[in-house]
Design brief:
This protein has no helices and 10 strands. It has 114 residues and is mostly beta strands.
Length: 114
């Protein structure tokens, strides 16, 4: 059974940083192009970053220069390093395969507020 588990979210002040983790069981993440997504109530889930099997990353314009996506094949985990966080980054963050979506995890809440 494939399971994605996101963690690392929390409450942070504007300008702060967080590191999100996405761990998988039942599959090997290194075979997928992986993405981080976020969703706020009433809005469509949006992709904020993606990383290819060989480590090439792309970012949404809204997070470019502030977020960094990486992956660790040995740990079967994908990370999202977020810095200079803004209130508009507040959302539930999810990871998933970009091309062949896996069952969605529960996500991790990120709240940016003073």
């Amino acid at each position: 059974q494939v399971q994605l588990v996101e963690s690392g979210g929390g409450l942070v002040r504007p300008g702060g940083s967080l590191r999100l983790s996405c761990a998988a069981s039942g599959t090997i993440l290194s075979i997928y192009v992986m993405g981080w997504y976020r969703q706020t109530p009433g809005k469509k889930r949006e992709q904020v970053a993606r990383i290819t099997n060989d480590g090439m990353a792309n970012y949404a314009d809204t997070v470019k220069g502030r977020f960094t996506i990486t992956r660790d094949g040995a740990k079967n985990t994908v990370y999202l390093e977020m810095s200079n966080l803004k209130p508009e980054d507040t959302a539930v963050y999810y990871c998933n395969s970009v091309v062949s979506p896996l069952p969605w995890g529960q996500g991790t809440q990120v709240t940016v507020s003073s």
